[in-house]
Amino acid sequence: MELELPIGALIAMGLVLTFGCLGWIWIFSATEKHRRKLRDGMAWLDWRPLPMGIVFFFFTTIALGMLLNLVGIYLLAHFSRADRFADLHPLGLLIVSTFSMHVLLTVVLLWVTRTQSISLHEVPACRGSHLLTKLPQGFAGYLLAFPLVILGGILTQALLPRFGFHLEPQDLVQDLGRFESLPQKMTLFFFAVFLVPFCEELVFRGYLFPWISQRTGFWGGLVLHSLLFAWVHMNAASFLPLFALSCVLGISYVYTKSLMTAFWMHAIFNAMTLVNFFLSQGAPPS
After folding, report:
1. Predicted confidence (pLDDT) at residue 268 exceeds the cutoff of 90
2. pLDDT value of residue 282
3. What's the pLDDT band for 2 if we cut at 50, 70, 90?
4. Three-class SS string for the chain?
C-alpha cells in the first residue's frame, strides 16, 4: 500500500527526523551523564520483584487468546451474516482481537501479581500521578525512535525482497480505509492509541523485559524482548521497524524508571501513524 502524503505532512516528518537525529547527537555528547542514569535504571530493573511463572502464564494465555479470537471471529461472522472473512468490518475484528489477546493477557498478569502479594506499583511502575507528567519524556522518546524506525523500514525494503519476502502492511493498516464514519474512527483511535499501547507496554516492558533481563543481563533482555515484540505482530514488513521501536521503548523505560514514558511514546507513535494515513487519503495521487 502506497501512501501519498501532502507536503505539510512530509515537512512535519522531516522535522521529526531532524530533531530525532539531533537528539541522538546530544545524547552522545553527554555520554557519561546518560550512562550513569542508565546504570541506575539497570540496577532498578534487576531489583524489580516479579511474579513466579510469568513465561508459563504468558504463552498459555496467548494460546487461549488465539482460541478465543477464532471463536470471536466465528461469532462475529455468524451474527453479521458475512459469507467471507474479508467481508467482516475491521472494527469488529479489532475489538475481538484486542479483548481476546491484549486485554486478556494484561488481566491475567495483573491477577497473577495480586495473587502472589506483589505490589502492582512495583511491577508495572505506572503510578497514576505519572500519567501526564511523563508525556514530554514520551514525546522525546518518540523523536529518538523515529530515525531508527525509518532506518528499519529502509533496510526492510532493500533486503527482504531479495530473499523472496512479499512485503505487505499489517492487516489493520491495509483496512484503515474502511473506517469511514466518525464513531468508527474515534473507536479506532481509542483502541490503537490508548488501550493497545497500554496493554503491550505493561506486558512487554512491565513484565517480560525485566524477567528476561534478570536472566540474560540488560542488553540481552533488551534484544530478546524486542525480537519477541516484533515477532508477535506477525508481519515481515514491520519486523525491523518494530524491533527498533521496542529497543528505544525499553531504554526509555529503564532510563526514566516509569512505564508511563514508554506508554506515551508508543501512543504517540501509533497516533502519528493513523494521522499520516488519514491525511494521505486526501492527498492527490502522484
Report:
1. yes
2. 45
3. very low
4. CCCCCCHHHHHHHHHHHHHHHHHHHHHHHCHHHHHHHHHHHHHHHHHCCCCCCHHHHHHHHHHHHHHHHHHHHHHHHHHHCCCCHHHCCHHHHHHHHHHHHHHHHHHHHHHHHHHCCCCCCCCCCCCHHHCCCCHHHHHHHHHHHHHHHHHHHHHHHHHHHHHCCCCCCCHHHHCHHHCCCHHHHHHHHHHHHHHHHHHHHHHHHHHHHHHHHHHHCHHHHHHHHHHHHHHHCCCHHHHHHHHHHHHHHHHHHHHHCCHHHHHHHHHHHHHHHHHHHHHHCCCCCC
- What does the pLDDT read at residue 281? 61
CA atoms within 13 Å, Cβ hemisphere of 150: 13
Q: How far is it, in rounded angstroms, from Cα 271 to Cα 257?
A: 23
* pLDDT digits 0-9 by tens, 175-207: 787 888 888 889 999 999 999 999 999 999 999
Any long-range contacts for 3-7 (C-beta under 8 Å, 24+ apart)? 3/276, 3/277, 3/280, 4/280, 4/283, 4/284, 4/285, 4/286, 5/276, 5/279, 5/280, 5/283, 6/279, 6/280, 6/282, 6/283
Buried b vs exposed e over 29-58: b needs ≥16 C-beta within 10 Å?
eeeeeeeeeeeebbeebeebebbeebeebb
Q: Where are the domains of the chain?
A: 7-51+125-280
Reported pTM = 0.87
